[in-house]
Amino acid sequence: MTRVLVSGATGRLGAPICAAVAAADDLVLAGRVARSLAGDGGFATLAEAIAATEADVVVDVTRPDAAEPHCLAAIAAGVPMVLGTTGMDAEATARVDAAAREAGVPVLFCPNFAITAVLMMRFAAEAARILPDAAIVEEHHVNTVDAPSGTARRTADLIEEASGARPPISSLRLPGVVANQSVVFGAPAQTLEIRNVTTSVEAFVPGALLAARRVGGLEPGLHVGLERVLD
Ligand SMILES: NC(=O)c1ccc[n+]([C@@H]2O[C@H](COP(=O)([O-])OP(=O)(O)OC[C@H]3O[C@@H](n4cnc5c(N)ncnc54)[C@H](OP(=O)(O)O)[C@@H]3O)[C@@H](O)[C@H]2O)c1
């Protein structure tokens, strides 16, 4: 049984992850973390929760400003970390990687837990090897804090690695949208559109659980993308 500590447990994403962990035969919900849970059956801080529970893994889905301190708290305690929170900048990411290597702890950052989104990125990288002219259009709900989204930036990285050209990103923030992304490739008299659509946060839950089950088997350091544990 893998004991999972969920940080951001009351959030749009954290709440269904908690429910799914509690319902899974091979996982145990070791604890729930959110500032509003202080004295209400959970923990106000991740450090407090790690000290009080014997968690095998932390899943963090909080806010960009909490991502680095939460990674460092898990690393300091020797607990593998799944980071679903997006928006951590390059310097903070490098610090987390260095700390994780030094402490011998794996950290898996998944900009997108949706398995269809991971495949969309994989297929976009494949297309970019042949079609260098690309653009990304990402659409998220109005409360999304960071723009462009972590998924859009990760897709742009993969396309740039494959073609040498970084695609422009357009970010739309609209009510009624959960998280969609199109990658459009253009060539003379033809276009190719690869589109991922998610209709509810439930789309992210199976990937988050998969990451929680498998992160402990990764090498120490920071890994990026659910694809690291998908195949
Ligand atoms: N990787 C993916 O596939 C994916 C998909 C969707 C969203 N996301 C990302 O996941 C994150 C959460 O999204 P959401 O829509 O669920 O947000 P949300 O509904 O605002 O929930 C945020 C959660 O984090 C808690 N929290 C915030 N700051 C905290 C802190 N310093 N310490 C402890 N808990 C804290 C909040 O509770 P309190 O306010 O009570 O502390 C709440 O439980 C965002 O970064 C979002 O971009 C990732």
Could you explain how this protein is built, in words?
The two termini are about 20 Å apart. It is globular, with a radius of gyration of 18 Å. The protein has about 230 residues and is of the alpha/beta class. Helix 5 (about 115-130) runs parallel beside helix 6 (about 150-165). The strands form two sheets. A six-stranded parallel beta sheet has the order 2-1-3-4-5-10, with helices on both faces. The chain has a four-stranded mixed beta sheet with strand order 7-6-8-9, with helices on one face. Strand 6 (about 135-140), helix 6 and strand 7 (about 170-175) form a beta-alpha-beta unit. The mean pLDDT is about 95. The chain has helices at about 15-25, 45-50, 65-75, 90-105, 115-130, 150-165, 205-215, 225-230; strands at about 1-5, 25-35, 55-60, 80-85, 105-110, 135-140, 170-175, 180-185, 190-200, 220-225. The relative contact order is 0.16. It folds into two domains: about 1-110 and about 205-230, 3-Layer(aba) Sandwich (Rossmann fold); about 115-200, Dihydrodipicolinate Reductase, domain 2 (2-Layer Sandwich), CATH 3.30.360. The site of NADP nicotinamide-adenine-dinucleotide phosphate has 27 residues, from helix 3.
Topology overview:
Elements: E1 2-7, H1 14-23, E2 27-33, H2 46-52, E3 57-60, H3 64-76, E4 81-83, H4 90-103, E5 106-109, H5 115-128, E6 134-140, H6 150-163, E7 169-173, E8 179-187, E9 190-198, H7 205-214, E10 221-224, H8 227-230
Parallel strand pairs: 1-2, 1-3, 3-4, 4-5, 5-10, 6-7
Antiparallel strand pairs: 6-8, 8-9
Helix pairs in contact: 1-7, 3-4, 5-6
Bound molecules: NADP nicotinamide-adenine-dinucleotide phosphate.
NADP nicotinamide-adenine-dinucleotide phosphate is lined by residues 7-14, 33-36, 61-64, 66, 84-87, 110-113, 144, 204.
